[in-house]
Amino acid sequence: MATATDLKGLADRAVKEISSAADEAALEAVRVRYLSRKDGLITAATKEIATLPAAEKPGYGKAVNEAKQRVESALEERGRALREGAIAKSLSETADLTLPPRRVRVGHMHPIARTIREITRILGSMGFESVEGPEVEYDYYSFEALNIPRDHPARDKFNSFWIANPLGDPTDRRVGLRPHTSPMQIRVMEKRKPPVRVVVPGRCYRFEATDATHESIFFQYEGLAIDEQISMADLKGVLYSFARQLFGGERKVRFRPDYFPFTEPSAEIAFDCFVCDGSGTTNKGRCATCGGSGWIEAAGCGMVHPEALRRVDYDPSKYQGFAFGGGVERLAMLLTGTPDIRLFHENDMRYLESV
Amino acid sequence: MPSLRVPYSWLREYVQAPATVDEIAARLHMAGMEVDRVERVGGAWGDKVRVARIQKLEKHPNADKLQLATVEFGAAQPKTVVTGATNIAAGDVVPYGELGAEYVDGHTGERVVMKPKNMRGITSEGMILSAKELGLGEDHDGIMQLAKSLTVGVLLQDAIGDAVIVMEIAPNRPDALSILGIAREVAALYNVKLTEPRAAELPGKLDPSLLTIRIEDDRACPRFAAAYLEGIRIEPSPDWMQRRLVAAGMRPITNIVDITNYVMLEIGQPLHAYDATMLRGRVLVARKAKRGERLRTLDSKDRALRPEDLVIADGERALGLAGVMGGEDSEIRPNTTTVALEAASFEPLGIRRSSDAHGLQGSSGSAAARRFGLDLSPALVSLALARAVSLMGEHAGGRLIGSTDVYPHPRDRAHVRLRGSDVPRVLGASIASAESADALRRLGFDVQVADDTIDTYAPAFRTDIGIAEDIVEEVARIVGYDRIPTRLPFGPLPAHERHPLDVFRERVRDVLVGFGLQDTISYAAIDPAWLTKLTADGSPLAPEPLRITNPTTVSQSVMRPTLRASLLDTASRNLRHREGVGFFEISPVYLPRKAELPEERWTVGILLAGQAEPVHEGETWLTSPRSWDLHDLRGITIGLRDAVGAGPVKGALQRGGPGLHPGRSLRIESDGRVVAVGGQLDPRVAAMWELPEHATFVAEFELAHLLSETPAHPSAVMPSRYPAAIREIAIVVDEARPYGEVEQAITEAAKGVAESVALRDLYRGPQVGAGKKSFAVRVVLRSATGTLSEEDVEKALKRIQGRLERGLGASLRS
User: pLDDT value at position B150?
Assistant: First the structure.
């Protein structure tokens, strides 16, 4: 059994070792040697208290406690000093912050998806609900219900892809790939009573040669608003507000008459060209993006034709409204400075990561 | 849209607006008459090509076929130049190009810059020029003769330069598909006078022994008129007419043909001229083709006619496909002296169908067919005929013998009555009835305004007017769309529906982008050959695709029934220029259905291939290179489920997905079909697409199925406030035992207290022996209701041990 003197010697030794511990690991080793719950030297002395006669217990216990307290406070003091030293050392160091970091993987939303989200968000804030419809569509919805009967000259503008009929469905319901999102005007009005206010984004298809500004597979957005007193002034307001929110105030907007069989009166909305800033020329001559006009036609629009309203059993003497439709790619090109529409479907990561 | 070239000098013959050509073009454009561009004729001449007069002509001393022309062109000294032309004489006024002038080489057709040229010993420092050299047509036979009235020395550009307004005319406005039609628009827009072209008086009488007109089908041919002219001399048409035809985009031929084309461009009404001596039976009939009838058309094609085709015939045979193309038999010849001139009106649908059936639609069709395919007013028939007769008298010696006009049911002018308030109702602009009426009158409408009523009769040539909205648009075009104010719709907000799948799709997109994957969109129509490259043996992976009957290219000829091929193609193309890719696409696939439209099933496809790390290629100083592996793909799919809050998988999980590595893939079946697949791409398929055989991973799943597994609202968890007991266990099992069973056994054995089980290490080797493996697992035990005692923990561990040993034949190592 150790004596009180032994205990003092033990504590002296511990304190000495503590003061010479060079780092926190060495300090921890000292702590374990003396204070470990299992086999620390001072712990062992503590355990002996129980074996002593009652009379010796207080004196010995006091000595053990003193030793333990001395060691513990030395540990704490030395520990604090070591940590402060380490912090001071750390603070004196500098890192080369030009070294390449450990990068995280970054994904980008496709510019078309992002533009569609922007379109539906802006129009959503004006009360337009976003709805979607079939890309493979009946001739009826793509054309006839929109006041474009078969052999109508306006169909030349909407050269369509047609779908073979492998399942032998009735041939009077010709099926093709929708050349615009306008069929959803009819589908929505068939299902709902006015007031109606919807925006329809989606894929469309046209049989045409591709170049820097034309694709045979592309995306459109369609807006439709029907109520008792919706006029062309509302149409103009919605589209101007849309353009301002999408592009900011500096983009110029032009509104001029156009022709579509399913709207009357009809109009076209255009934005000034982002490549030539509306001048029509670049340092290479005529601006290829706007064809030299200085304007990029962004959407066709107009007041829904009374024939189309009648077809869905809306009373044209009571209800009127507007529709507009435009290319998502056009807007995405404007927003991202993408010079060639084909980049959107090429999926070259170098391009997609840049926009 | 049909295009129209409007030479400005021609337009000015009918209307003179106080504005420049560019201003007029812009105004037309803003009034709905689309202007594509304004071309300058002679823009390339610059300041080097001038009007000159030939002072004298001498023989070249060393060459028989060359002459020396001394020209005055405004410079202090006249210049003597060499010319090979023979059509010139002293006193002629001609175009002269100085050194440095740009011109078209008469032989090569290329643009060149004029340089001094030695011709048989004499250096020529300038040229007198032909029409072709000036870029004004094909005529290179002689020097272009200019009017003697021109001032010598002025720039040719100022003297005869012109501008051409190139327009696209809407298909509902065939009346405006003409110079006069555009002139009417200009007159209305600027409120200036319109000068109608000169036209002959038609007697309306014709001796039936010379020519009789008959309509057999007055629906297909509502009006048929003709004029009979004698004394015709076939020769080239006058220069000014040729120049206008060229500027408007047509090729001059001879005077009679040129005049029919000129009047078509001028008024919009096509005409047809026959050599009257070739008409058998002295008759022209508009009738349907007879069974088995054939016709050799002007393009030298022998055509079998359909019984629906309308033809113009004489007493014996079809002479032409009415309104579409004439026949060879009756065309004007160099010795023609007697002409029967036809002006007729045809039903447009029939014309379009005939054009289509005979492969003459669009640009391969005739200019006439393109016009007749639109709703051209029958009123133009008499106007055009009278105009052509007048021109044939002036320029072809034509003597009008008589004329006839069969028009059994004259078409009424469009009559529209509307309320004055309809204009502000539709436009939202305050435009009074008087202003509307004024705009309409400028456009040639007859208008009566009384109280709130505007009563209108459209001009006869306007076939596009039918309803009040048409009238409103006319008013708006003339007053300008700028008059329409901007405002936002008011009134009750329509009810909005929820579209959970659309919302969910965007949520999934955000999550995957957040995981660092690139969002892609590829073509929805693909090459059918791709579908045979999705499995090792070429067997189909998806249902038979929908076929496009008229694809532009075979590479986009079927609607994709799976995203797989697009994913592989995108990966393959990108791996040509980078080490690794990780991307996804969310798009529909198209699946045929009986008796209804195909299903467009929204699908998510994820592809990982090649190198996963480091993210920035080549930067291995911190991160060692590592390929994508199966665990990455599983981590992403499980991470997506976590992120969207999906619950347990619905459906049966099975090993092996189509086109995937049989041992390293899974599929989920539900409702009798595969709703999700994922795993390593079959290395044989990878090889076909030039993808890394052992490092290409694909997952595809139906968006709607994932949505069905996802509760609408998450169920919140109350975190336990009590401490955890953490224990490490090493479990040795047979090699064939999947880890999932071990984890499941632990969780079930310690139900209620097993908070998590983590796999710390997987060991195979001498310490556990052959055919065995060891899982080092950390188990976190925690109760929601109180602190676990040492005893509780021991009990739980005992249960775990028992379950593992008895149930899985495992042994526990310490």
Answer: 82
Q: Between B424, B556, B581, which is nearest A349 by CB?
A: B581
Is A346 found in the same domain as A228? yes
Q: Are residues A89 and A115 in the same domain?
A: no
**Which has the closest alpha carbon to B719: B788, B784, B781, B643?**
B784
Q: Quick check: B485 and B39 in contact, CB under 8 A?
A: no
Question: B154 pLDDT exceeds 70?
Answer: yes
* CB-count burial class (<10 Å; 0-12, 13-18, 19+) for A51: exposed
With a CB cutoff of 8 Å and minimum separation 6, the contacts of B496 are A129
In the DSSP assignment, the letter for residue A156 is G
Same domain, A69 and A136: no
**Among the ranges given (A290-294, A336-340, B224-228, B305-309), the one the predictor scored with the smallest mean pLDDT:** A290-294
Query: Between chains, do B171 and A153 touch, taking CB under 8 Å as contact?
Result: yes
Considering only CB atoms, A107 lies closest to which of B172, B518, B521, namely B518
Q: Could you report the per-residue pLDDT of B38-52, keeping only the tens digit for each?
A: 988 777 788 889 999
Contact A162 B548 (CB under 8 A): yes
Q: Are residues A223 and A273 in the same domain?
A: yes
Q: Residue A219: inside a domain, yes or no?
A: yes
H or E element: which one contains A90?
A: helix A57-92
In a domain? residue A269: yes
Give the residue from B55, B240, B47, B246 showing the smallest Cα distance to B132. B246
CB contact under 8 A, A195 and B1: no
Q: What are phi and psi of A220, to 5 degrees?
A: -125, 165
- Window 154-173 of A, Cβ < 8 Å to B: 154, 156-157, 161-164, 166-167, 169-170
As a whole number of angstroms, the distance between CA B131 and CA B153 comes to: 18
| Structural domain span for residue A52 | 4-94
Give how far Cα B120 sits from Cα of B68, B89, B108, B124, B140, Å: 11, 22, 22, 10, 22
Its ipTM equals 0.89
**DSSP letter assigned to residue B301:** -
Query: Contact A265/B476, CB-based, under 8 Å?
Result: yes
Q: What CATH number does residue A260 fall under?
A: 3.30.930.10
Closest CA to A135 of A159, A111, A161: A161
Query: Residue A235: left (phi > 0), alpha (psi -120 to 50), or beta?
Result: alpha
Secondary structure of residue A323 in the 3-state scheme: strand
> Same domain for A154 and A294?
yes
* Residues A74 and A126 reside in one and the same domain: no
**Residue A311 · residue A186 · CB < 8 Å:** yes
Instruction: Kindly determine whether residue B549 and residue A164, on different chains, have CB atoms separated by under 8 Å.
Output: yes
A108 neighbourhood in chain B, CB within 8 Å: 513, 518-519
Task: Kindly report the three-state secondary structure assignment for every residue of B634-703.
Answer: HHHHHHHHHHHCCCCCCCEEEECCCCEEEEEEEEEEECCEEEEEEEEECHHHHHHCCCCCCCEEEEEEEH
Question: Is position A117 within any domain?
Answer: yes
Residue A102 lies in a domain: no
pLDDT category at A244 given cuts 50, 70, 90 is confident
- pLDDT, one tens digit per residue, over B289-330 is 999 999 998 888 899 999 999 999 999 999 999 999 888 878
Query: B654 to chain A, minimum CA–CA distance in Å?
Result: 31
Q: For residues A88 and A125, state if they share a domain.
A: no
- Residues of chain A contacting B549 with CB distance shorter than 8 Å: 161-164
Q: Is the pLDDT of residue A313 over 90?
A: yes
Which residue from A minimizes the CA distance to B579?
A349
pTM of the complete model: 0.85
Helix axis angle for A232-247 and A328-336, nearest 10°, is 40
Q: How many CB atoms lie within 10 A of CB B12?
A: 16
Domain end point (choices A69, A94, A119): A94
Q: Are residues A78 and A137 in the same domain?
A: no
Average pLDDT taken over every residue of chain A: 90
Residues A135 and A202: beta-carbon distance below 8 Å: yes
